[in-house]
Amino acid sequence: MKLKLFIIALGAACFLACSNNGKSKPDREDPKAEFTFTAERAPEYDQWFHRTKGWFGGDGIFMVRKDGVEYDNAVNRSEIIIWFSDTIIGEIVDGVLSFFKMINNSLASVPTNGNPPSFKWDSIQNQPASVIVPTTPKTSEGEYYWLGDGFINTEDNNNLYVIGYRIKTNDQQQTFGFEEKGNTLIIVPNTDLYNWRAAQQFDIPFHGDRPITSVPNFGAGIFVNTEKAGVANPDGYVYIYGVKGQEKELMVARVRTKDFADFSAWRFWNGQQWSNQFDAAKAIASNVSNELSVCQLSNGQYALVYQYQTMSPIIAMKIADRPEGPFSDMIELYNVSNDIEKDKDIFPYNAKVHTVLSGQNELVISYNVNSFDFFNDIKEFPNLYRPRFIRVKYAFK
After folding, report:
1. Which residue, 151, 144, 120, is CA-closest to 58?
2. Do 243 and 85 form a contact (C-beta atoms < 8 A)?
3. Who has the most CB within 10 Å: 12, 154, 172, 291?
4. Residue 270: Cβ-neighbour burial (10 angstroms; 0-12, 13-18, 19+)
5. Cα dist from 107 to 8, 86, 132, 364, whole Å
6. DSSP conformation class of 86
7. 3-state class (DSSP) for residue 91
8. Cβ count within 10 A of residue 31
9. According to DSSP H, which parts of the chain are helical?
10. End-to-end CA distance of the chain
């Protein structure tokens, strides 16, 4: 129960704190005026996660191709690796929740033939268990991982690099009883990308001893701007996006792929240039979600996709000429109200693009659905807690 209280509390805090302030200055007179699109449900991906046995719920969904390619319209694609944060393992019988257990994280793999994913989790004493737990020098007893974005590092033997957030329950705090204690770089060896217990874990040092809530929290999204990722006109950097404070300000760092684990090589956008000072980072957008994406569009521009005001029904996008912005005004891509109208406590969050599923001039976008009254609503709506997908087809005038 404490695991789910973290998600519910996080969502509530974000929703109550977000405001309408802080629109970014457009990079051109009106770049969004050139962008036209249609949006609809993507039921073939919804069906991947609409399950009744074993894995039947989870959020925090991120995915990469095993070969590190992010942009490729070929029919035969490489195997896809998916990771989730809080996960439900159990069974639904005739539409009724029979039993379930929550774990902190899990995995799935999508084969090259495009068949539905197979799901993976650990087991301890014949009980479902998380695929990874924190083991860094700064980790204290009782901490667990919420997982952020990641990428295949083609400059490091195709190992999988993922940002992890160390979380701890605080029993002395009755309201929002959790604390984020720090961030970790998780490196999963390419020899077995589903054995996360074998991963190396490194404390990310930028926060120092300051509360996480007072500084940018990098890992909300990662954009790999390299030739091997399939990007047009790449600059060779990996861009790491982070979110700060009650207004959900978006900030960005970058580093060469080969230097990702060298935290002294990270540079932070200060609004004018790249700085080696973590505290120099400046907001490039606001009112974003805790998980999001930045990707390249077919015309070479960059799209920031997120859940507007963290938990509103609006899936939003901004456009820029550079990965660090400045970004255009918001474009409303899709409204997910139909997914939350069943109950006043249900809310959506964490919209993001999955380029490894997207075709030419297309954005395949997932978003999560949860409830402030989770333990009652999951009984009434057993398939509530799972990713949903839409498909945006776009063109430029």
Report:
1. 120
2. no
3. 291
4. middle
5. 22, 11, 10, 20
6. S
7. strand
8. 19
9. 2-17, 43-49, 374-380
10. 50
> What pLDDT digit, counting tens, does each position of 309-355 carry?
999 999 999 999 999 999 999 999 999 999 998 889 999 999 999 99
- In sequence order, the 6+-apart residues with CB closer than 8 A to the CB of 44 are none
How far is C-alpha 299 from the chain's CA centre?
24
DSSP output for 289-311: -SS-EEEE-TTS-EEEEEETTTT
Instruction: Find, among 113, 62, 17, 107, the residue nearest to 355 by Cα.
Output: 62
CA distances from 100 to 45, 53, 62, 155, 373 (A): 23, 10, 23, 40, 16
Give me 258's structure tokens. 């080969």
What pLDDT shows up at residue 9?
45
- Tokens 């695991």 locate to 3
Length of the chain in terms of residues written: 397
* Nearest alpha carbon to residue 351 among 294, 282, 285, 283: 294
Cα–Cα distance for residue pair 161/274, rounded to 1 Å: 23
Q: Residues 249, 215: contact at Cβ < 8 Å?
A: no
Task: Compute how many other C-beta atoms are within 10 angstroms of the C-beta atom of residue 135.
Answer: 12
Token pair of 321 as six digits: 């000429």
Which amino acid is present at 120? K
Would the pLDDT of 90 be above 60?
A: yes
Q: Characterize 233-244 residue by residue with b for buried, 16 or more Cβ atoms within 10 angstroms of its Cβ, and e for exposed.
A: eeeebbbbbbbb
pTM of the model: 0.91
Cα–Cα distance between 82 and 75 in angstroms, integer?
A: 19
d(CA 395, CA 33) in angstroms, rounded, equals 11
